[in-house]
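fold-stage: in
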Amino acid sequence: MSTKGRKLTVATFVLLFLLTACNQPVDTGSSNTQIMLAAYTVPKEAYQKEIIPAFQKQWKEKTGQTVTFKESYVGSGAQARAIVNGLEADVAALSLEGDIETIHKAGLITHDWKQRPHNGMITRSVVAFGVKKGNPLTIREWQDLTKPGIAVLYPSPRTSGGAMWDINAIYGAGLKMAEMETGKKDPDRGRELLSAIQKNVKVMDNSGRESMTTFEKGLGDVVVTYENELLLRNMEQPLYDVIYPKATILIENPVALVDKNVDKHGNRAVVEAFVAYLQSTEAQRAFAKYGFRPVDPTVMAETKDKFPEPEWLFDIDYLGGWATASEQIYGPQGVWTGIVEGKKGS
């Protein structure tokens, strides 16, 4: 073989070696690894200021690896669609079960994510009202949001999981109030309450975080949002009164490892450890610090004075579960769809 031929053979071998090496899983055999976290907007501070740094420290001490994070924070529904459309997230930490199921149905999550403790949930909250300090308009209950001249804010359910929780809370409150008065749920009461409040909604932003930003700019008399969004704003100084209506919904927020992306990236060990860490006592205390209700019973007991229990609290099962609620409220003939399109929903 000529010298030139030998040089080409060596060069080809080196190139093939490098390409092969670059496609090998980067896990505990390397000094560095990476996690791509795709989350809804609301827990951004908890992740960036507490949870990610604590996990990085723990993982470094355990394995010697430095783990870096790429992060994306947008509305939950938009985030789910981004993952389905090619965002290579290793972890989906979203607002609601249905958004995780969107990724699952696309074939990207292949395991039973609800088999984790707490059915795969990592935080809880409730839907509450935020009003200006001192509550100048004396807003106490959902009916107060139907009064003429009251400017209401909540985001759009087309992009925001938080908005779906808000709308579920309103519709469910109508059912609950009817049940407490008559002994039976009345869908008409739910529709009437939702329709009356929707007439007073001035802006529907893309996410719960954007709705809070709009409220902070001085637009609106009341923002319907996650309790934790309001507690976060009040951490350093009390900016808003947090109002808990008697009837409201318990919010539960899921997380799941995205199998197809993890297998492509070869980082399953560190991603599984991070997902497990989110339910640890340490992470649950961090979530509680930023206003989220813990799923861990021990941490919830430690923080119970921070989180009032609304009198007529209900969960998604009260509305028949997510599949039923999605169809009856947001489907083509759904209640909310009918209201915003100017026709009577089913």
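fold-stage: in (second)
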Amino acid sequence: MVRAMLQLTDADVAALLEKTDVVGTVREVFLAHAAGRTVLPEESCLRWTNDEGEACRSLNMPGLVEIDGRRIAGTKVINASLGNPARGLARAGGLILLFDLTTARPVCALDAAHISAGRTAAVSVLATELLWAAPARAVAVVGAGALAEAHLELALRRWPSVRQVRLHDRVRERATDLAERLGDTHRTVAFDVTATAEQAVREADLVIPVTTTTSGYIPADWIAEGAVVVNVSLDDLTPEALSAADQVVVDDWSLVAADTTRILGRMHRAGDVLPPPRHRDPNTPAPARPAVEVTAELCDLVDGSAEGRTAATDRIIVNPFGMSLHDVAVAGRIYQEFLT
């Protein structure tokens, strides 16, 4: 008998996500990826300009991963329009579809917003914990949307060390509202809304840009010694900031190398990036002077096959392009939780 496709709403997903160890799931996916128990195709992207002159895009990101002795397959479709916030809508939204491994039929459709934000924050938190010199005390977040809130909620639950959060958003009211909401819950943390991104970033132990920019604005000299920068929105750093970093770590090199729009992918296509060690072709000469050397993928750090931080003063940049495997795995666990 073929089961009818289940549909889980945003509210369903939010409630079930509370019962899911998202950081643990993300870690297991990285281990599976390192062990070759995944299939991660390139994402496809459709871009257009709408009748209002606003940039729009649709991403389709399939993946298959084996965790808990069980394979999970599916895809995330997530669409965005830069004009949506002015309409009172979230900038991005979409669905995750899970597939039956025998029939290949979709068995569950889940609202993607909470899963996408939750797994993105989980990757950032895990990467930071793998790479920080000491537990973070001062955190800078540039951008004050849903991703900023997801990152800070997760980080502040896990890190009692945090004493200060500096927030900046081009729309100051958004940053102020977020600071007030979080301040009501996290009373041991000082929340400061800064007038500029520079004021937020300088001297922070951890920097998390979560913006919609397509132009770099964070130079190397804003980044403190020993800091970790998790470059979530991918285009906030200048090429010089990437070049000056002591280490650059990616989530998946193949996705970065295939990309034609983000800064690290563009630098790679220009011959300015040396791939992580296990992706280097011994028959291909390395660039004479690569501007950026990618030192590891996150799966290598998780499974211990690559070294993380080598000095307390290292400035480390994490470039998490975004792996659909995490969305699919988290969705799969939510689906199983619903069925039980």
